[in-house]
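Chapter review: from sequence to fold.
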Amino acid sequence: MKKKIVLGVLFILPLVAYLFFASGVHHFSKLPVLEKQIGNLEDFHKTSDTLSLKNHISIIGFMGNDLQTTKGNLFNINQKIYNYFYKFQDFQMVMVMPKGTKKEVDEVLKEFSHLTDISKWNFVYGSPVQIQKFFKSLNSPYKLDTELYTPYVFIIDKKGQLRGRDDEQTETNTLERKYGYNTSSVAEINAEMKDDVKVILAEYRLALKKYNRKNTQILDAK
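The token string follows.
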């Protein structure tokens, strides 16, 4: 009897543990939508005519007029996010810049080109009014400074929706939404942001697998 109990426990416990973690993965398989429809980049000057937020997973940032001061933030996300995810087909970086900063941007891209493939780094240029309007469409609690800069970057999905966290625990034990990720903090990028980008990529890969499986079943039935 004791042997049967021991064997039963050895068999059941791993199964229970698997079901627990499997259900946890399923529960956290989607990154919450915090804003259903942000603005578009149609009126911005783009270096590529094919650049679009639609059907892409985009990391959007606002690096402001003084790129020599803020390029450290770009370096952080280049090393911790871009280098990790740029090989995914639909992934891209989009930095919204003030007009007149292209020379500084080109210099930074030249530096980055020695470190990585920069093909999915995109910069768009607009007036202060255009940039503020687009930034406000994110409906986040953050603000751009007088140089049109914020250290926060944002995850935008293929439908143009802002993704983030709606249950972020704070030091005062209150729950807050997390709209963006502070590029001044390597720890935050490396932990929270990287995890959240993984989640949204996994979400789309799972959806694609289900779509392909469904189509295969339809073809098999014909």
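Two observations follow directly from the output. The chain has a mean pLDDT of 84. Strands lie at 33-35, 45-46, 57-63, 91-98, 121-126, 149-156, 162-163, 165-169, 175-178, 181-182.
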